[in-house]
Amino acid sequence: MSEPALEIESLSLAIRGQAILRDVSARFGVGETWSIIGANGAGKSTLLKCLMRIQNGWTGRVRVHGQELACLSQRELARHLAYVPQPGGEQRFPFTVREFVRMARYPWAGPFGAAQPGDSEVIAHALRLAEVEEFAERSLDTLSGGERQKVFFAAALAQGGNVLLLDEPTAFLDYRHQAEVAKIIHALHRERGATIVVVTHDVNAAMLMGGAVLALRDGALVWSGPARALACEQTLGLIFGATFRLLDDPVTGLRLVAPQGAGEYR
Prior knowledge:
Elements: E1 4-15, E2 18-29, E3 33-37, H1 44-51, E4 59-64, E5 67-68, H2 74-80, E6 81-84, H3 97-103, H4 119-129, H5 145-159, E7 163-167, H6 175-192, E8 195-199, H7 203-209, E9 212-217, E10 220-226, H8 233-240, E11 242-248, E12 255-262
Parallel strand pairs: 3-8, 3-9, 6-7, 7-8
Antiparallel strand pairs: 1-2, 1-4, 4-5, 9-10, 11-12
Helix pairs in contact: 3-5, 4-5, 5-6
């Protein structure tokens, strides 16, 4: 068992009296790949936001490389954890791609935000790995959704965190951009040995990602195990409350799944 990069112990969150997360515990080892799955509203994205302190008010304990999350400044936290939000949104970014990626180096900046030796090389490498070099001087606001998502990956790479939290990274993207984003994720894992935690509602994406899976339902942890073990009708019914068909993929050899209809599993 590898050394823990991120540990969650009994994390719970209620908003206006409504339970959003219920006593969630998990351990993500250094260099491991994890998918967090579940139906819409299961608490997947909220869990990532709690880990990044975007969402406050939760109870429980979180440790990052053995350090209590509560004891880390936001800058210290950013040296360990990098976060890529869901595609889309109405945010405006009046910066070029290179400027935006450069800003991600803030956890390592000197006094008054001064650049550090080696920043230019790190930024150039992030642009290259995320395959956004060709439009590095374009405004971020002129890019398509898929192109912009790759820029967010470049920023996360430049930030330098060794734990990457990805919130539905391919949602709303066309198939070409989904494949490009998946390629970037695998390259990052292979090259840097980063711990990857991906939120997705797509069971097939989780199985193709490999590694391990944590499943939430109604804010509670209901299943955890290797991705290959997901191809089980009873397990999928427990997680999603629906019935599925299992299909054999002749290319990967995996058993992929397709929804069959509504069903209750308790």
